[in-house]
């Protein structure tokens, strides 16, 4: 899943051949990789890809704003508690 | 230049690939119109539920970011006539609204019976924003696929002024007239989250204020706004799930006094700066800043390929660049 998420970010926001480096803990917003509209595209991708429904109150940087956070968030969502 | 045989994206578009039939990677990834329609129905329902909850909470049910262009005019008409909302239309005048667009706004607000607020940021500062935006890549690379940097700066200011006004006036709903190509249906009904706004505002305001100065802070949220977390509204852009057809839209809004301007480029029905913003973008990056939006509409069957092609690759009215440059003092 980590690879899929990284792959999506690279393909859609960094462009494969750009040579940009991205650490799993880097904030997308702080690094200027994703803007607000991009965040919404990211949400659309996650819902589609993992069959999850992201609620309004889950749209926070803590859940979405780095590869690491995304992976943890999706893992939590996929296992219903 | 190679252009996708299905949509209209060119080979100069960042990261694009083509298969042996000349079909681009964006078209290959497209899930199909049926899947899209299913999403549309789902989000329309979500919207109707939200409208039900938003009525009669304060002085207004809904605010609309009203540019006077065809899309926001149509959105306003639908919200008023179909959903019967009490609306405050808010126009941010960037100093480049076409004369016809201004007349249109006034006739439409009057004919529909909605309150209309016009906010005109000081032009010396806006001019600085536009000039700096024409020379620098201020925002993330991704934004360059979707719009010129001039447009992104302007829309950024529009979004944050609109949001802070909605918070100040306790309006529970903000509507935008994004075309179905501009924003995905999955984000067409969404609660504005204060933490996310804080982070995205920093991403916009940080680089912008570095270039043009702290005076631009006036158009963004302050701690006073963030303290009112329970007043943060929902954002909606109904054109993503409503039936969209440009010809029909223009005909329908004609009935409430809207006339097509003859002094704007083929991708704007209100802004005189747009042609210049497009020109700068094309020269710097080799593709039209509207091509992503128009290609989305062609791909999803909302616009004929031929019409989309003309909008992007067709000839533009002459003289628009001179008008914009003169006003910018270039
Ligand atoms: Zn294509």
Write a structural description.
- Chain A contains 4 helices and no strands.
- Chain A is an all-alpha fold.
- Chain A has one domain (2-78): ACP-like (Non-ribosomal Peptide Synthetase Peptidyl Carrier Protein, Chain A, Orthogonal Bundle).
- The longest helix of chain A is centred in the middle third of the chain and has 15 residues, at 36-50.
- Chain A is globular, with a radius of gyration of 12 Å.
- The model of chain A has no long low-confidence stretch (mean pLDDT 82).
- Chain B has 330 residues and is of the alpha/beta class.
- Chain B has a 6-stranded mixed β-sheet with strand order 3-2-1-4-6-5, sandwiched between helices.
- The model of chain B has no long low-confidence stretch (mean pLDDT 94).
- Chain A binds chain B through residues 11-18, 27, 29-30, 32-41, 43-44, 47-48, 56-57, 59-62, 64-65, and chain B through 14-15, 31, 139-143, 146, 159, 183-184, 186-187, 190-191, 193, 195-196, 199-200, 202-204, 207.
- The complex binds zinc ion.
- Zinc ion binds next to α1 of chain B.
- Name of the CATH first level of chain A: Mainly Alpha
Order of helices and strands of chain B: HHEHEHEHHHEEHHEHHHHH
- CATH homology superfamily name of the largest domain in chain B: HUPs
Percent helix among the residues of chain B? 40-55%
Number of domains of chain A: 1
State the largest interface: A-B, 33 and 25 residues
Q: Indicate the CATH topology of the largest domain in chain B.
A: Rossmann fold
For the record, give the distance between the C-alpha atoms at the N and C termini of chain B, rounded to a whole number: 30 Å
Number of helices of chain B: 14
What's the assembly state of these chains? heterodimer
Q: What is the H-and-E element order of chain A?
A: HHHH
């Amino acid at each position: 899943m980590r690879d899929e998420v990284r792959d999506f970010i690279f393909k859609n926001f960094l462009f494969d051949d750009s040579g940009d480096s991205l650490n799993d803990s880097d904030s997308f917003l702080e690094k200027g990789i994703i803007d607000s509209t991009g965040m919404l595209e990211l949400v659309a991708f996650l819902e589609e890809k993992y069959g999850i429904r992201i609620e309004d109150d889950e749209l926070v940087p803590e859940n979405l704003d780095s590869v690491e956070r995304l992976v943890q968030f999706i893992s939590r969502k996929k296992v219903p508690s | 230049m190679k252009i996708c045989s299905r949509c209209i994206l060119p080979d100069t578009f960042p990261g694009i690939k083509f298969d042996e039939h000349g079909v681009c990677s964006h078209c290959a990834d497209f899930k199909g119109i049926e899947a899209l329609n299913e999403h549309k129905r789902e989000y329309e329902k979500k919207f109707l539920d939200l409208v039900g909850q938003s009525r009669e909470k304060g002085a207004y049910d809904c605010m609309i970011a009203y540019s006077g262009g065809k899309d926001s005019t149509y959105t306003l008409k639908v919200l008023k006539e179909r959903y019967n909302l009490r609306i405050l239309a808010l126009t941010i005048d960037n100093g480049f609204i076409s004369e016809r667009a201004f007349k249109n706004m006034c006739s439409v607000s009057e004919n529909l019976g909605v309150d209309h607020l016009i906010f005109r940021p000081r032009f010396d500062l806006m001019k600085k924003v536009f000039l700096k935006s024409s020379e620098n890549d201020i925002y993330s690379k991704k934004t360059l696929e979707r719009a010129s940097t001039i447009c992104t700066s302007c829309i950024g200011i529009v979004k944050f002024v609109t949001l802070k006004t909605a918070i100040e006036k306790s309006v529970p709903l903000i509507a935008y007239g994004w075309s179905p190509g501009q924003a995905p249906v999955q984000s067409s009904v969404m609660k504005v989250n204060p933490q996310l706004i804080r982070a995205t505002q920093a991403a916009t305001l940080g680089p912008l204020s570095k270039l043009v100065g702290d005076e631009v802070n006036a158009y963004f949220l302050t701690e006073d706004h963030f303290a009112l977390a329970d007043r943060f509204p929902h954002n909606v852009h109904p054109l993503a799930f409503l039936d969209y057809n440009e010809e029909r839209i223009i005909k329908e809004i004609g009935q409430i006094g809207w006339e097509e301007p003859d002094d704007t480029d083929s991708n704007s029905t209100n802004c005189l700066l747009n042609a210049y913003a497009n020109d700068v973008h094309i020269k710097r990056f080799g593709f039209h800043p509207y091509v992503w939006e128009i290609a989305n509409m062609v791909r999803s069957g909302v616009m004929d390929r031929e019409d989309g092609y003309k909008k992007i690759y067709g000839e533009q009215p002459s003289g628009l660049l001179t008008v914009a440059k003169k006003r910018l003092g270039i």
